[in-house]
Each structure stands twice: as C-alpha cells, then as structure tokens.
UniProtKB/TrEMBL annotation, chain A:
Record InterPro entries: AAA+_ATPase (IPR003593), ABC_carbohydrate_import_ATPase (IPR050107), ABC_transporter-like_ATP-bd (IPR003439), ABC_transporter-like_CS (IPR017871), P-loop_NTPase (IPR027417)
Taxonomic path: Bacteria, Pseudomonadati, Pseudomonadota, Alphaproteobacteria, Rhodobacterales
Protein name according to UniProt: ABC transporter ATP-binding protein
GO MF assignments: ATP binding; ATP hydrolysis activity
Protein family (similarity comment): Belongs to the ABC transporter superfamily.
GO (cellular component) term, any one: plasma membrane
Keyword annotations from UniProtKB, A to Z: ATP-binding, Cell membrane, Membrane, Nucleotide-binding, Repeat, Sugar transport, Translocase, Transport
Record localization: Cell membrane
Principal location class: membrane
Membrane topology: Peripheral membrane protein
Classification via CDD domains: ABC_Carb_Monos_I (cd03216), ABC_Carb_Monos_II (cd03215)
TrEMBL record, chain B:
Membrane topology: Multi-pass membrane protein
Organism annotation: Palleronia sediminis
GO cellular component labels: plasma membrane
Keywords on record: Cell membrane, Membrane, Transmembrane, Transmembrane helix
Membrane spanning stretches: 12-30, 65-84, 91-113, 153-174, 205-228, 240-266, 287-308
Listed name of the protein: ABC transporter permease
From TrEMBL, chain C:
PANTHER family: ABC TRANSPORTER, PERMEASE PROTEIN, GUANOSINE ABC TRANSPORTER PERMEASE PROTEIN NUPP
Gene Ontology CC terms: plasma membrane
GO molecular function: transmembrane transporter activity
UniProt entry keywords in alphabetical sequence: Cell membrane, Membrane, Transmembrane, Transmembrane helix
Domain of life: Bacteria
Membrane-crossing segments per the record: 12-33, 53-75, 110-128, 140-160, 200-219, 247-268, 274-291, 298-315, 327-346
Main localization (coarse): membrane
Cell compartment(s), UniProt: Cell membrane
Name used for this protein in its record: ABC transporter permease
Organism: Palleronia sediminis
Topological relation to the membrane, as annotated: Multi-pass membrane protein
Entry annotated with the keyword Manganese: no
Amino acid sequence: MTEPAIELKGISKSFGQVQANRNISIRVMPGTIHGIIGENGAGKSTLMSILYGFYKADSGDVFIRGTRTEIPDSQAAIAAGIGMVFQHFKLVQNFTVLENIVLGAEEGPLLRSSLARARKLLKQLSDEYELHVDPDARIEDLGVGMQQRVEILKALYRRADILILDEPTGVLTPAEADHLFRILQGLKREGKTVILITHKLREIMEVTDTVSVMRRGEMEATVNTAETSPEELAELMVGRKVLLRVDKAPATPGDVVLEVENLSVRDDAGVERLRGVSLRVRRGEILGLAGVAGNGQSELLEVLGGMREGRGRVTMNGTALDLTGARSDARTRRQRGIAHVPEDRQREGLIMEFHAWENAGFGYHDDPRFNRGLLMDNEALREDARAKIARFDIRPTDPWLTAKSFSGGNQQKLVIARELEREPDLLLIGQPTRGVDIGAIEFIHEQIVALRDRGKAILLVSVELDEIMALSDRIAVMFDGRIMGERTPGETNEGELGLLMAGITETDRDHSVAEIEANLARRAGKTA
Amino acid sequence: MSFVDIVQILDSTIRLATPLLLACLAGLFSERAGVFDIGLEGKMLVAAFFSAAVAAVTGQVWVGLLAGVGAAMVFALIHGLASITFRGDQLISGVAINFLAAGMTVLIAQDWFAQGSRTPALSGDARFSSIDLPFAEALSGVPYLGPIYAEALSGHTILVYIALLAVPATWYILFRTRFGLRLRAVGENPGAVDTAGVSVTRLRYAAVMICGLLTGLAGAYLATGLAAGFTKDMTAGRGFIALAALIFAKWRPWHALGACLLFGFLQAVSNRYSTLDFGIVQIPNAFVLALPYILTVVILAGFVGKAIPPRAGGQPYVKER
Amino acid sequence: MDKLPRWADIALVPFINLALALIVSGLVVALIGQDPFEALAIMVNGAVGSSYGWGYTLYYATNFVFTGLAVAVAFHASLFNIGGEGQAQLGALGVALVCLAVPWPHWTLALPVAILGGALFGAAWAAIPAYLQARRGSHIVITTIMFNFIASALLVYLLISALKAPGMAPETVRFPEGARLPTALEVFGAIGIPFSRTPLNVSFIVALIACWGVWVLIWRTRLGYEIRAFGRSEPAARYAGISPFRITMLAMLISGGLAGLMAVNAVMGEQERLIQDNVLGAGFVGIAVALMGRSHPVGVLLAAILFGALYQGGAELEFETSVPREMVVVIQALVILFTGALDGMVRSPLERVFLTFRKQPKPGLAPETRP
Amino acid sequence: EPGLIIDLGGKFDKSFNESAFTGAQRWVEETGGDYMETELASEAQREQTMRRMAERGANPVMVLGFANASTLETVAPDYPDTTFVIVDAVVDQPNVQSVVFAEHEGSYLAGMMAAMASETDTVSFVGGMDVPLIRKFACGYAQGAKAVNPDIEVISNMTGTTPSAWNDPVKGGELTRSQVSQGSDVVYAAAGGTGTGVLQAAADEGIMAIGVDSNQNYMHPGTMLTSMVKRVDNAVYDAFEAAQNGNLETGLQEKNLSNDGVVVAMDEFNADLVTEEMTAAVEQAKADIVSGEIQVHDYSSDDSCPALDF
Ligand SMILES: Nc1ncnc2c1ncn2[C@@H]1O[C@H](COP(=O)(O)OP(=O)(O)OP(=O)(O)O)[C@@H](O)[C@H]1O
Ligand SMILES: Nc1ncnc2c1ncn2[C@@H]1O[C@H](COP(=O)(O)OP(=O)(O)OP(=O)(O)O)[C@@H](O)[C@H]1O
Ligand SMILES: [Mg+2]
Ligand SMILES: [Mg+2]
C-alpha cells in the first residue's frame, strides 16, 4: 500500500479566542486531487497555512510521505516539496514574472544566472502544463488569472510535488477556471498531489478524486467524489442543523421601495464586482440574497449603503439616489430612510474602542435628538443606549463598556438595535447572525421579521443558506456579480440553491459538463 | 557667469552633494526594504561627531571614520529594534533618533573636549585630504572638459569618490543580486518573501544596518572631509534634504544621484549669490535654499509624476492578525 | 476584550515608559561624570523650587500645551502632524502682524485678535499638507516636515526684508505697549502676592482654556466624535457617513491653529517682537507631550508641565553644573523613544503578565455555541 | 560678582566669544576673583538668560554682541541696581556701559597688509551675517588695501543674513574657494565661527588668511598673515576690574587704535609672512590714524563705503 502524500493528525490552532482548527486529521493520497470545502471561516485556509509552515499549529503532527515532518517555516515546507497558492496572492506587484518566480529560490548571490535558468525552466514548465505567461511582464499589468499561473509556476519551479490551492477560482472567469482545471489534471497525471480549496461544488464534482468537508474548525467528513453528490456535500457543508423555525406570517408585499437597475461596481483594484444587477424590494417583504462570499453581495450592500460608488440606477421610494459624488455618502442614505447592518460589525459597524453608548448612536450622531447646538447631548445618547440595551437584552448592560468587551453576539445586537430602532423604510442587513449563538439568532430573526411586519422593506445578505431559507420571502442567488435566479422558499430547497450558488442553473444540469462550461463562459462574457 | 564660475560651482556642487548622496542612498536601502527612516539626520550627526572626535583623539581619520560609521550603525540598530522587533511606529522612532543625536553629540562633545559643543580642529592625518584623479594635470588644458575634469571632478576627498561609486554599486546590488531582489521584495510585499521561505526580519535588519553604514559615511564626510571638525547641529537639515531627494528620485539610485546633484547645485549657487537675479525676477536666497523642500512637496502632490513609496513601507510586518 | 486593564493602559504603561526614559537619562548623566541624583535635585529645585522656577516652568509649559494639543488633536484623527514647528512659526507671523498693524490701546483688545491671527496663520500652514494628504495621498509626515523648512525660510525672508526693524538683528520692531500681555508678576502683584519676574503671562490662562476647549471638542462635540471615529477606523467612518476628506482637513486645521496659538505666549507674551528662532523646538516637544499625555488634554497639560519643568530645570542645571542644556533634548528623545517607538517592548510582556493572571478562555467559544 | 553671558557660537569659537572668555579667565587668574558664566542656547532665550544673571545678583552683567541690544533695552530698566555691559552695540540706558570698537581702523591695517602680500592684486573678505557692523570691517579693509594699491580688486562675500551665518564653517569654506577661483590670494574672515572654515579652506588652498577678534595666527601657521584682534578680552577684563574697584562707568566706551582696542597681531606664527616693509607701513598708518592724518571711513556712520560696493 502506498503511503499518503500528506497526513495530518490532530491539528489544532487558535487565534486568541477563536479556535480556527480543532483536532483535524486528514489523509491525501499521492497523485490525486483532493478537495476541501467548507463555509466561510470554517478554518480551511488556516489548516493549509499550517501545512505550509506559515502558521504554527498549537498541537498535532504532520506526516509527509509517511515520515513525520516538522514544518516550522515555509522554507521547511518548500524543502518537503509543498507549494501553496494563497487565497490572496503573495506576489510582488512591481516585479516581473521571472523575478517573482526566482524570489527566495535563487541559485547564487547574483541574479543573472538564476534568471537565465529560470527562464529556461519556465519555458519548459509552461509547455508541459500549458502555463503560458510572459516572463518579462510585470505582475501589476497581469490579470488575476495570469497572476495565479505565476503562483503555480512559483510552486513548480521550487519542485513542489504537493500543490495546495486556496480558493483558486474565486477570482477567475469560468474560462480561466476551466483552464486551471486542465492544468491541475496535467499535474495529477505527472503524479503530483493537489489540494484544492473551494466553495464551488461544481468544481469539486468536476476535478477532485476525494473531498473533505470542514465545518466550524472541525473535519466533518472525507468522501470519494464519485460516491457523493452536490446535494450531499451541500448538506454536509451547511451542517445537519435543525432548521431554524421562524414564526412568520406570509408576506403582504406593498409598493416597491428599492429598485435597482443594471448596477455595476468596480472594486479598488478595478475588478468588476457587480455586473449589471437588477432587483426590487417591496414594502413588507424580505428579499434574501444567497451566495458564496465574494460574489458581489458585499459590494451591493456597500453601494446601497453609501460606502462605495457605482454605476447604474437606484431608486428609493421612486426617487433616484446619487451613486457618485458627495451625496452618495452614507449620511445621505440614512436621511433617505436606509438603515444598514454591515457584514463586518467590527471593522465597519462599530468603533471597537468606543463605549457602547457612543456606538449606539453611530451614524445617527447628527440626529437632533442627540445634539444640543454644537455639543452632543451625551446624556441623551446614554439614555437611548440604555433603552436599546434593555429592549434588545444586550449583556452586559453597562453602556460604559467598550464595544470590544462585548461578545460577538452582543456586539451584533447593539448594531441591530441601532439600525432597527430608526424604523427605516429599507433595511440592508449583511450576515446578521455570523458568529452569533442560537439564542441571539432567534432574537435577531424575530426582530427582522417584526420590522417586515411593520411594513418595511428588507434586503438580507447571508452566506447561511438556512438563514436565507428561514427568513426570506423571495430568494435571489448571486454568483460572480450577477443574479443567477430568483426562487421562493416554498418552491426550492437548499440543494437547488447550493447549485445556483455554484453557478449551475436548472437548465445546466441536464447538459454535459462541457456544455455547462461553454454556457457559463458565454454568460460571463469576455472578462478578466 | 563665466566658465570659470561654472567650473567652480560644479566643484562646489560635488562637495555639497556628497553628504546628501550618501544619506539618500542610505535612506534608499532602508525604505526599499519597507522601513521608513526620518532619522537620517540624526544618524549623520552622530557619525559626524564620533568620526571627528575619534579622529581628533587618535589623529587618524580612518579610525575616526570607523567610529563614525559604528555610531551611526548603533543608532540604526535602535531604529531596527523599535520598528522591526517591537513593531513600533517608524516615524516616531525616527523623530526620537534625531533628538537623541542632537542632544548626545553635544553632551559627549562637552564631556570629552570641554570646548563647547565642538571637537578640536582637525588637521593633517586626522582629516581626509583631497586626491587628484589620474591625468588631471595633463588634461586640464583640454578646452571645457579639461577644467571640468581637473578642477570640478578631481581634487576631492576619497569619500566623494566612494559616494559616487556607491550609486552604481547600489544599483547593482538592488537590481542584479539576490540580496537586492529580496530586499526590494520585502519592501513591497513582505508576505511574498515570508512565504518564499526567507526571513523578513533578517532582511530588514540588513537594510537598516546598511543605512547606518552609509549615513555613517555621510556624517564622517561632513566632519572630516568637508569641514575640519564637529560643530553642533552641523548636519543642518541635510538629512531631511536627503529624504526629499529620495522622494524626488522616487527611490531609484541613479535618480538619487541626479536629485542630490541638483540639491547640491542649489546650495552651491545660493552660497555664491545671495540673490539670483534673472533681470525680470529676483529670487531671494531664502527661496533658493527652500527649493528642495518646495520641489518635494510638488512631487508629492503628484504634479510632476507620482512618487509611489514601497508599498509595505512604514508598516511593521505582522503575520498573524 | 482589552488585553490590558484600562488603568494599566493609561497609567502603568506610560509610567514604566517614563521610568525607563529617566533611568537611561540618569545613566547618561552618570556617563558624563555627574551625579544623576544631584542633577535631579538641581533640576527639581530649579524648576519648582521658587516662584521664579515656577514662572518659567509654566511659561514653557504654556508653549508645550499648545503644541502638544496640536499633535494630540491630529493623533485623534490618526494623523501624525510633525509640522507643529512650522505652524507655530506661521502663527508667530500672524500674531506679529496683528500686534504691529494696529496701535493697540489695551491688551484686552489685542489678545483676542492676536489669538485669531495666530490660529488662522497656523491653520493655513497646516491646510496644504492636509489637502495633499486627503486628496492626493501625499504622506502628511513628509509634507509637514518639508513645510517646517519652508516656514523658516519664509520667516527669514520676511525678517530681513519687509518686516525688518532698523538695526542689525533680523527682527521686527517691538510691539506697541498696548499689546503687552500682563505677566504673572503683575497679576499676582495686583492682589498682593509676590512673584518673580518671569515671562509667565495670561497666555497660560488661554492654554488652560485651550485644554478645556479641546476636551469639549473631542469628547463633547459632533466633530470630535467624528474625528475620533475616523481616527479609529476609516471604513467605519465611511459606513457612518463621515467624510474622510472633511475630517482630515478639519482636524489638521484645528491642529495647525493650536500650534499657531503658541505664538501668543512666546511672541506676544515674551519676545514682544518677531524674531527668527521663536518656536524653540516646541513644535517637536509637542510630539513627546502628546505621546506621554496619551492625547488627552489633561494628560497633555500634565506632560507639558513636566516638560516645562524639564526645560527650566535643564537651564538651571546648565547654570549650576557643566551639564549642557542638551541634556533636556536627550531626555526628550528618550521619552519619545520609550513612550512612542518602543511602547511594544513594555506592552507585550505586560500583556502576557496580565493574561496569565486572567482565567483561560472558555474552550472553543465562537464555533461551538451554535447548534 | 560679575557675570558673563557668552553669545551663540560658544566660548570656543576661536573668535569673538573666545576673546571675551579669555579676558574673563585672565581676570580670574590675576585677581583670584570669581564670576558667573553662562552660554546662550538660542536666540529666544536671550531675555531669560540676562534676567537670570541679574536675578542671581551678578553685577555687572556682561553681554556680547549687537543682537542683545533690543533685549537689553527692555531688561536693563527692570534692574536699576545692576550695571550691564554690552559689547558691539550702544544701549542708551543709565545703567548700561556700551563698548564699541573701531573695527574699521584695525581692518584698514589688515587691508594694507593684505594688499602688500598679494601677488595677484586680488584680495577678499568673508563676512558673517550681513549687518552694518560687518560691512564696517569690510569697508575698512578695502580702504586699507586700496591705500596701498589703488588698482587692487577686493572681493567681498557675506555668509548669510541670519545669526546662523556666524556658525557655518562649511559655507565659509565654500565662499573662500570661490574667491580663490576668482584670483584672491589673501582672505580676511570676519565671520565668528564661520571663520574657522574660511581659514581652513585658505590653508587647504594655499593662500593667506587674516583672522579676526581673537589672535588666530596659531591656527594655521604659515598661511595666517595676521589677525585683526578686537580686544574684547580687555573690555571684559576692564569691566570686571572696574566693577571690583567700584568704579565701573556707564555710557559709551570707544576702543580704537589709540587705546589698543584693536590691533593687528604679530607673533611667531606669522613672522615669516610679515616683511619689515609691512611692519613699517602699518606702524606709520597707525600713527597717522591716531593722529587724525588718515581718516578711515566708518561704514556704520552713514551706511556707505567709498572703497567697496556691497
Ligand atoms: N491571522 C488570524 N488571526 C486571527 N484570527 C484568524 C486569523 N486567520 C483566520 N482567523 C480566524 O480563524 C477562523 C478560520 O479562518 P480561515 O481563514 O481558516 O477560514 P476559511 O475556511 O479559509 O474561510 P474563507 O472561506 O472565508 O476563506 C475565522 O474565524 C477567522 O476569522
Ligand atoms: N474581538 C474581540 N477582542 C477581544 N475580546 C473579545 C473579542 N470578541 C470576543 N471577545 C471576548 O470573548 C468573550 C466571548 O466572546 P464570544 O463572541 O465568543 O461570545 P459568545 O459566547 O459567542 O457570546 P454570544 O452568545 O453573545 O455571541 C466575550 O465576552 C469577550 O469578552
Ligand atoms: Mg480561506
Ligand atoms: Mg458568539
């Protein structure tokens, strides 16, 4: 029997209070492609960073080709034949491809010979694996797909025979992804071992031999891909949890509050994140936006919330909103009746060093209620905070505590209390229960439904499918900056949504993989 | 302005540009590695003092040079400890180093020599003497280029030529060696260096120490080459002009030479003419002296090309959040 | 949760930092052959041992309060304004122009206008670096350094040309009698308390008011709230509709204005004419003061008095012994080094100590609490 | 107990301040007396330093340099029981003694020597801060040079317009080199601490130099033609002495050639450079100036100079 290429035993790792990996064991056989899936924050990247020596595990052992190996740093991992392509590329932007490839693997103190040799080897590698890149191009001039090839070449140049790819397709167009998979198949044929982290079930089904599912820092299961189905994986990934029951009456939608037409957004790096999104939210309904993180939901919330500029047309109660310029800011949005619970409460929703009472008015601090002339009426703010703390059962109840001394759930309640209490016409709410325990989840869900029942419009973004299912009156699924389709909770199931989230539509399922690819490529158009 | 004047001004330009150039290259190494350094001034100052003091005591300028460089490297080490090991604020550390140098040099000068804040005047072997380049005499007859070679280029101290040679050397090290590649990478994306299995800390310390070495040479040149001894605050803002030159040069060695020569030239001109009279406009001396700073602001404002510092500059490298 | 309890953060850490700075300073004194304890005694006695010492200590402290508050306000917006020196120089110009432009009949009329002049000029000098930072991304530290040099060149130019008084020195004529600020000697004298002749003047009251004003600004006004929010987290500020441009500009204008106010004390209160070197490095001392005072007006006031005492004590030390006044510069440097740059050296071991005294984290918090 | 405030540049500036310091030391040695001394740290601390001296009971309080004039003007009236002595400026207060020197006369002699020593018929002058006082030196120097050789060229440069010009040896050296390139072979430095750079550059370039204030001949034997010594030391000594004897006068004290307030230094360090002819000419001119036969124009009397354009 052959030794596994990699075997991890009992790996644990925590970052302060967060246990990112807990007692994880996994075996990967040589010459296979092994997939790892799991929700955002499940601990996939952490596990692989440990394997690559980037982080040190708190406990556990690593075996490489049967021998126990210490990996104190990346140097050791490279020596053991491991290469890694990080989720966020580790490339020097203003270096050429060649320079990036030889960095850290130079042959001698002078560069010339290293570069010459690398150039030769690069040509060889790129012919062998269809990894064509211009060795003299600067990274900053390359598209993400190309940059990724450089990362793979970097690993191959270091003679890696175990290659780890962390969400390699998150930033790729379908065509590029397809190309990547062909490369991976090529590597596999060469006898190399590939570990592929992804959120996209379609990719798992298509290229992997075995697949492991991680959930909340633990290893749920490892199965042969041939013996499983996307539906089963989706269920494993999301967890066999009791479906949360939210008591809610059927929606009675009224007028359209928010109307988004053909909205497009580029991020700071110039990558198109939203590609012509259109949707409507009515009074008295919850529109749930499902999708894997990074498919444009965050950007949509940010544009609507006034944190980012965009192109297209957005109307609120019939009048258009500025999408660029001074009046596209969050203050103006609030004045127009939009409240926003941001996805990242610690980075955006709260000032962690502020007291709870200061945070309770954050964003509404210019409200006349909290001001007396030039001065802020701190007593009024505190009074208001105390009321919110009581009504939303935030614990501890001391408004003088700083936000960072509250638990995640209570921090979230504080934000939600602040935004809901304004009785906004439209509530934008992102990941309302991320990292929040069951009691708080129920409470938060009740509050959201109650707001709906008071005739307000709600746009809900969540990566938790069951949350979307439980709360939404309509569900739209986002993939790659577009709306893939719309369903109503009663007529769909997690399996179908999971497939949509992976970019596979109903019609695709009846066709062969190749046709799906082509279909996707066509729909994606020419990007990158 | 006659040709002789021009040769003279060029001669003076080279002398005045030398400390700027050495300090500028020093900053270039440090900042290219991602460690901002507004403490160039301070390191130059301690080097100026220790080189002059030790040269005065031993009578040997080379021993003085060693001491000056050593002192600057000790200060560089402090900056490294603060900004690399303890992940402190690099700017605040630089400010502290400037003050520390300003105070310490005077304290020690007073303690050692009791001549106010100066060292005894250096003479003979305690000072760098000028050296003539080969054929300077023979070529001086050649029209135009002859005098420029014989009088402006030749006849400086060895440190001037070291500084000039340091430019191609810096270029070579940065762009043609493994060390240079890694050093530039660590200033742009330390994560890339770390994941490539190379120690970010070691690289940054190396860069900071080279910075110390070069500022040491700069300071030693001031006190034992250009002047003949140390006087209080004798760097007189040259460290900041070097910083300005570094930005002006957009962190590139040959451009640094150009920028330092330009700023040296401005000083040489302002030394010679108390106002610049262009017929229609008269530019007061104060303005000529402030020109390096003004030019830097203009560059920073992005009106003349954009100066993009190394991307990871100013931030300590933290692997885990 | 905070890694350190609040008292440790605002008192223990600065105390250890300061102690380290003073210990190293003591070593320096010992190294140059003086008895550090004797030196300390001379300094303490010289700074606070008489009304003369107090007068000078508080006079210097007044300067440092203004420059310290300037740095502190910018710090709250997480901007590092090291241009206090230049802004104070410009403030001096503003104050001088005000004092010279009008034959002031009485200081009560001159003071408010001079305050305005100093603040406006200082603010104007901060406005350009602020704009360049907010709109063009030029690093404010570098631009403010450059502006320090440009300010002193400008002042030199004016003092040898347009503003120069007859005579040899590059200075303006003396301000009119009506622009003289009452000194502590006169104020205390009027109520029968003897006080030495020192430059301590009513500007000290202005400084106290400025402390209070900054406190109100930062902790009581909407603008202060926004400055603090922006300084803590720019994404959060954007989420709350706080304009980064507006806050950067306003924080720097206020900071520059405060630095400019220093001139009311130094130029109007003491020098009574505009001279070239009127700031005396107080702009830089402000950095140390703000760092030590943890950017809180009360802390700034205390740190300013400490530094005022250091300056006055240092002058006495030089007078009494052969320790040059630069000893003060060394102490100042060490305070900046230990409280600013080497803070982590004290903080991280301390955090570890506090962590071991605290109970271990509950096992597996966030993940497991879900069904 | 007398008090002495050393001005910016420090007591070892080899020049003006050092001269005063030497005088005080001589007084200590000769009388065994004691005096208070402090060094000015910055422009802005003049007033504090003066007041501290006065408060400490120093009497007389001696300040050096014209830059103290406007400060002393306001400080002196506050201490009517203290006598102040100021060098190089006139302060019109009842308790102030103002000591001024006839620098133009001494510089005249220096100019004569320069002209006689010059082989290129070009001599030069490096001043410190560009103020009337320094122009007075330059003007006297030019007059002396032209008296010897009417066709001689006199180049004059000032180091700067601010007090930092007193302490910038690097710039002093640069100015000197530039003058050498214009043909000068004797340079006269009247620039305080900046002068050390001038004298150094002259020695490096192999031309002759003339020092100022203190006798600087010893600094570069072989290239120092002479030094135009301003007996600030005597002024200090005399003031301290008079105060000890209780007969310190206030008002104006003029120190000139007749009372040896200014002299050109002759000693073993410049003996090789000074010809007998020079000595004779200088002695003659000195006698003529003292007798009034020669009138040396004082620049500061009307802000103009017949022999030199600025
Ligand atoms: N450097 C770090 N410091 C502190 N916490 C961290 C760090 N890296 C990861 N975490 C936390 O550890 C947990 C697991 O993170 P990890 O990045 O491994 O998840 P993931 O499964 O890769 O998620 P994603 O799909 O979003 O990439 C998360 O809660 C995350 O916030
Ligand atoms: N970002 C943080 N920084 C520092 N301490 C934190 C942070 N987040 C949480 N804590 C501390 O850890 C404790 C537990 O936090 P956690 O969010 O895991 O609580 P929890 O048990 O999940 O509570 P809840 O049910 O309210 O979410 C908190 O009370 C808080 O003191
Ligand atoms: Mg990940
Ligand atoms: Mg929780």
